Amino acid sequence: MDVHRVSSAGLSTHDRSELDDLLGCADGFVWVDVPRWDDEAEALLRDGLGCHPLVLEACRQRNHVPTVHAYENHWFVTVHTPLLGPAGHVHLLELDQIVGRRYLVTVHGPLNPAVDPAEALTETEAVRRRIAAGRFAPVSAAEVSYALGSAVARRHRGLIGAVAERLPDMEQQVMTGDFRQPESLLEQLFLIRHELITARTMAAQTHDVYARLASLERFVPAEDQGYARDLAEQFDRVRSIGDGESQFLFGVTDLYQTRVSTKMTVAMERLAVIAAITLPVTAIASIFGMNVIVNDHTQWLQLFVVLAVMLAISAMLLRWARRQGWW
């Protein structure tokens, strides 16, 4: 657990035991960052800050969708940062924020064991460095929360941008690809589509959360509502970009599936023509062979007649298939 005080003098780091005194200071506010939930963090939120039991429960367990709760002295919001994993999997890095008038608490996780814990701290560490370097001078906890939300929105946008960079190459493969083994390319297309849909869904849900927060006039001050409205607009733009890229990818995937299906249909038609041509030949040969028990010598006239009939039937079938446009 990291305890920081943000004031007009900048950012300073303190011990957990100083938290009560820091909350009583007239200048600035306190920022408590919890990289991993533990009993100490739960005691701080429950006894020190008087957080609602629902907030404690949300911080303790994993939340698969963004959420927002508002109370008399603080409001709580959960957002997710996307992180690309192997085989098209997208990890959801949860960030819980408890925003009060004099304090901000950020809680990370729980995390998938396969995720590097440093990935979950990317946004908070970036904002902390900006404050420490003097490039960002927030005057309220809500302003830091706004900066964190903007960083999450940029990461959403970055994921969509990373996926979009792969689309032109995939489109080129679709236009010039080998249809004899379509499984690999189709798998790549569907994995990219999954990444886009996940990012788009996360952005849309986060937009709804901040839009709801902006409407809570009873619990959220007017200035903080402005931050929420701006964040809602940011995530709405990310959602719109994701929709555009998804539609483009859907079109590329449908084109490739259509070309593969057409190729298979043509192949089946040609196989049907071959079967239709050989079927009467096989039938005549079978009947003729069953009804002739034994021959002392070759009956040339009979052989020529049978072969001529076979060729005539095959030629008629080929001509009929040609008129139907099958080859």
Automatic annotation (TrEMBL):
<keyword id="KW-0813">Transport</keyword>
<feature type="transmembrane region" description="Helical">
    <location>
        <begin position="271"/>
        <end position="294"/>
    </location>
</feature>
<keyword id="KW-0812">Transmembrane</keyword>
<keyword id="KW-1133">Transmembrane helix</keyword>
<feature type="transmembrane region" description="Helical">
    <location>
        <begin position="300"/>
        <end position="321"/>
    </location>
</feature>
<protein>
    <submittedName>
        <fullName>Magnesium transporter CorA family protein</fullName>
    </submittedName>
</protein>
<comment type="similarity">
    <text>Belongs to the CorA metal ion transporter (MIT) (TC 1.A.35) family.</text>
</comment>
<dbReference type="InterPro" id="IPR045863">
    <property type="entry name" value="CorA_TM1_TM2"/>
</dbReference>
<dbReference type="InterPro" id="IPR045861">
    <property type="entry name" value="CorA_cytoplasmic_dom"/>
</dbReference>
<keyword id="KW-1003">Cell membrane</keyword>
<dbReference type="InterPro" id="IPR002523">
    <property type="entry name" value="MgTranspt_CorA/ZnTranspt_ZntB"/>
</dbReference>
<dbReference type="Pfam" id="PF01544">
    <property type="entry name" value="CorA"/>
</dbReference>
<keyword id="KW-0472">Membrane</keyword>
